[in-house]
TrEMBL record:
UniProt xrefs under Gene3D superfamilies: Vaccinia Virus protein VP39
UniProt-listed InterPro entries: SAM-dependent_MTases_sf
Keywords, ordered alphabetically: Methyltransferase, Transferase
Native source organism of the sequence: Oryzomonas rubra
Top-level division of the source organism's lineage: Bacteria
Name under which the protein is recorded: Methyltransferase domain-containing protein
Amino acid sequence: MDLKEFTITHAKKHPWEVARLKALHKILAPVMFEGITALDVGCGDGFISGNIFNSLTSKEVTAVDINLTDELICELNNRSSGMKYCREMPEKGAYDLILLLDVIEHVEADRKFLTDIVDRYAPRDGKVMITVPAFQSLFGRHDVFLGHYRRYNLKELVALTTRCGLKVLSSGYLFSTLLLPKLVLYKLLNIGKESDGVGNWDRGEVITRVIEMVFDSDNSLLISASRLGIKIPGLTGWVLCEKRG
């Protein structure tokens, strides 16, 4: 979750967040291993980094977000071993896996930013996972609220990563079921507050589980299709990359 949408008392996770975590598990499974070193840039409230590595007994994960408070850093660092949360990027280090999950759209000079991250922290054959909001035609008030400069289609995202010294191993979209509602409600009808997002979820357990199942099925289909070379459009774009030698 973006920390602009986070409150310390927030208890319920939006179905989108849970389904996103499950999708990332599927995508990253081939590159996960015991003893992995990982850097989560723009970790938000720590939900992804705190769960994506749970199956590993040995790992060294550094999770960074400039908006983390001292209180949240203390809480997150006390949850599990092998995790370190902080506000500042490490001075140096070579990481097996770098996560940039809904991050580069917040950076005006995205190519320079990504190139610097790759050059500084990714060793040869190091893996980089990137997710972004998809399709500039859907850019709206909520993007402005979150501080986004742009949205990307998959072709643009692949081109950007290639220019930054990365080789794309796999790519695709997530959340195809949200494309039409996003287009109709936010663009055509102009309905919805700029601050509407995953931080305001307060629905009951039954409807939450049903929506999670719909999103999970949707994403599983899209990931399977992407492995066959079929790129079904969705609200989120992703690439799993490797640093070129």
